[in-house]
Amino acid sequence: MKNMTHPAGGKDDFQLVTHLTLTGSQYEIGKALTEEARRLGWSPAPLDPAVNRARRTWFERHWPQHHARMDGAAAVLGLDPDQDEVALDDQGYVPEGYGCSALWIPPSAAADGHGRVGRNYDFFRTTMSEVSGLEPRANELPMASRPYVISTVPDEGLSSTVITMSALDGCMDGINSAGLAVMLLIADFETTEPPDAFLPQVGVNSVQLPRFLIDTCENVDQAKQALLGAKQYDHGMPLHYLVADAHGQAFVWERGRDGTEHIIEFGDGPLCVTNHLLHRHPDPMNLPRDTESSFASYGRLRALYEGSKGVTMSGGDLRESLRAVRPSEDPAVPFRTLWSTIFDTRDRTLSTVFYLGDGGRYSEELVFPAR
Question: What is the set of domains in the chain, with CATH numbers?
Fold first, then answer.
């Protein structure tokens, strides 16, 4: 079953937010997501048959929920789910790439004992054409102006709520009914290179990875094992991920420039993440100076760390810390915080305010349960 509402924004605001609630089998959920993706203009991409067969086999073994949703996609498209010519997922509707700041407060440092993660999702307000150096097309909307909140309640397995601006089969933020929260952030502005190709590969892409963890894992230990065993790829935009659970554990997952994999933990204390690789700069108080291309990543992390170390923080304190590192509303600054989210891993909720326009215009805080 599918239910759609618009809980924030409107025709006169920068964002119009869509909330999809999907219930039923993973097959039925896949059908509903594909119908929505087609409405947004998505169509399946041709793919090398050998790669396509390997992708389906990998999903069947390692991410069966996604595999079942792909069968639902095939039904909507009138295709044999075992065909080899086109990819049935990779349901993107805007380009990828983002700034952002995130801060994990473990239960031991929280005023009420609730583990929480706060994150700012910072992104351009421009169209896809403008980011590519072109004039916008007639009636073209800004890339991030139509985000989706997607709540899925499958007949079996973990329920979840996620936020996405670029792919209905992936997400930028999410939390599941076990209290596992995952969010992505750009990891290295200064080494981003154009990809050789945008075609799907075997494994999970950078935007599918949070959804992969939310579907298959209940805690940090399971998430570490899933990541270490998964094939992963990006499209020229290196990302890293903050993962936290209801048991008070958290880590950051990164891949180095040489393909090495890194799990970064800070023990029983706050964990701050912005847009540089933590395994290359592990000391929050010994960071390089920001440059024009670092987008204040080092300064934002330093501010979050200094504001959270050695103190007990309430949910309100966490929200204030995030407000303090939002980008300026100066017209020369290309980014805005397009949503700001608090994940409560004990209550299994995701609470978000969405950007409606300059002048401090944000929606009221919306609370979405993961169960």
Answer: 101-145+175-364 (3.60.60.10)
